[in-house]
Amino acid sequence: MKREVTAIDTTTHGKTILVTDDEPHIIEPVKAHLERLGYQVLVAMNGREALNIMRDGKVDLVILDLMLPDIPGEEVCRLVRESSRLPIIMLTAKVAEASQLEGLKLGADDYILKPFSLKLLTARIETVMRRLPDSEPQDLFGDRHLTVTERRIVNALARRPGRIFTRDELIEVAFNDTFDGYDRVIDTHIKNLRRKLGADQIKTVHGLGYQWGGKRR
After folding, report:
1. Section 194-216 average pLDDT
2. Are strands 16-20 and 61-65 parallel, antiparallel or unpaired?
3. Which pLDDT tens digit goes with each residue over 90-133?
4. In CATH, what number is assigned to the domain containing residue 148?
5. What is the dihedral sign for C-alpha 10, 156, 146, 178?
6. For residues 155 and 80, what is the distance between their CA atoms, to the nearest angstrom?
7. pTM score, two decimals?
8. What is the domain extent for residue 147?
9. Do residue 54 and residue 95 come from a single domain?
10. Which of 108, 144, 168, 184 is deepest in the core (most CB within 10 A)?
11. What percent of the chain has pLDDT over 90?
12. Nearby residues of 122 by Cβ (< 8 Å), 6 or more positions away
């Protein structure tokens, strides 16, 4: 993995990232890079260790490999989402669209395909961090176990109930300029939101996109 020099962002101080991967050649440069940026970094080599660390409640974001030696990353994500909205960025070598969409269905906020650059990883982390509650407008839906990505999408829709948002517009809302995947990921997030908020809250405008169709609360 190519090492890249990046200026330290003072806004990262105090933020803790858990890197979960069983490959030292990935963990070591990622950990060193994030520490240079000012993050505190914890490391887990398997799923059980990651879950134990997350239960302490001292992690702000998780980088989660899907192919772990004990518990699959998808199962780790599912277990976390039963009780937490902790931001999760999945690392995966599975290039199939279905595999990536499955990760988002389980509640991941983003995914990165291996191999990846440290510059891309930094951009994805910063994008997800910007969606956290202390930097977001007031959450319209309280504690509904929405992920940070889901909250960003639903808040955009609900604040402009008359507007139809295309997939591309919602991708921009959710991921800014760091997205390089399939536009169907938005459909997956919408499906998750309907399950959590009610099927009638978000309307599909066929051929155009999505529109808010319910009440804020």
Report:
1. 84
2. parallel
3. 998 876 677 767 777 888 888 898 899 999 999 999 988 876 65
4. 1.10.10.10
5. negative
6. 23
7. 0.62
8. 135-212
9. yes
10. 108
11. 37
12. 6, 33, 37
CB 23 within 8 A of CB 45: no
Q: Please indicate, yes or no, if residue 5 is contained in any of the structural domains.
A: no
Place of tokens 């933020």: 15
HSE toward the beta carbon, residue 157, CA cutoff 13 A = 32
Asked whether residue 175 is domain-assigned, the answer is: yes
Provide the CA 111 distance to its chain's centre, in angstroms: 7
Cα separation, 162 vs 80, in Å, equals: 35
Asked whether residue 179 falls in the same domain as residue 87, the answer is: no
Pairing of strands 209-212, 88-92: unpaired
Name the residue type at position 86. L
Helix H, strand E, coil C: the string for the chain is CCCCCCCCCHHHCCCEEEEECCCHHHHHHHHHHHHHCCCEEEEECCHHHHHHHHHCCCCCEEEEECCCCCCCHHHHHHHHHCCCCCCEEEEECCCCHHHHHHHHHCCCCEEEECCCCHHHHHHHHHHHHHCCHHHCCCCCCCCCCCCHHHHHHHHHHHHCCCCEECHHHHHHHHHCCCCCCCCCHHHHHHHHHHHHHCCCCEEEECCCEEEECCCCC
